[in-house]
# Entry
Amino acid sequence: MNILFVTGGTGGHINAALSLAKEIRFADDEVNIKFSLNANSVFEKKLQNNKFDYKTYSLKMPSRLLTFAWFLFILDNIKALVKSFFLIAEFKPDVLVGFGSYAGIPAVLAGILSFKKIAIILHEQNLVPGKANKLLSVAANKVAVSFRKSETFFRGKAVYTGNFVDKSFFTVTKNEGIKELKLKQNKFTLLVMGGSQGAVFINDLFLKAINLFEAEVKKNIQIIHLCGAKNYECVKDKYSFMKIIDYNIIGFSDNMPIVLAASDLIVSRAGATSIAEINAVGKPAILVPYPYAGNHQRYNAQVLEDNNAAIVFNEQLVSEQILADTIISLMRNKERLKAMAQASGKLADAESISKMRQLIRECYEKIR
# Structure
């Protein structure tokens, strides 16, 4: 069986696809896997490190309407579509798995329009589906959804699988994380992160909140700040002027199970993959969803909030004082932290990859 994974240019897509691909390869020697993705040197390096073959094209959606950049964007889409037709003719996939985003449309569309018999499966990570998957689902065989509430969007094509993460998230321990990151065992460990690319808003908000911490808090806390590679130097410089002793600044991590496991509390955006990883390690969280891109993150975060696994703040309303007070309050309330952690862990689905593998196999058998 030949499987083509089509991902956009975000860490959430590539991490989910990579976790699934590694599991499939481990379980079945007779499967050939190839990736098609929007060009991104960081994610291409991840595929190279895991010895997966891939092809890229380059798409960047213009930020403004009715500009010349849109004409170039349309041309780039046509080029990507042609390139995808050649890839499909060469690789001859039996199954194509698309992970959403505008950047994945050309390759999935090529699979739909080709004369070959290809099972098209889409994976929707967010609770409220994106425009790309809504559009492509019309011609897809099945749509794997991460939240049961998403099933209503896909008219009988939806299959609940959950949002899959690497199995190591379910087995790694806090002690392993603390040891690997060379942290102290007796201090409260706070992880601050903004997704695979970092988040300037989260970085700035938290750096302001630190200045409101009392001396006692600073003495008893250690911080892991996953700030994004492009923000690393700026964030590092700001920490150097602060009166806080224990901190570990990371631009980009390829070992998120260790980073997440080391923490007692997480401050984060609410991307679908980030939430799945937080649940898999069973950690309490303070979430500040990204308020744009269809407000997908707010709906994702709502699931954790409704299950008492996270505290969720609106970006337009949260302040450094509110964030600082919430962190300190949770630090001092171990019972609430424990209850939130247990609630978070209950939202995880350790069988999600197995469910997706089964769906791929079933769709493949139907087209043979």
Notes: Residues 2-163+350-367 form a domain with the Rossmann fold fold (CATH 3.40.50.2000).
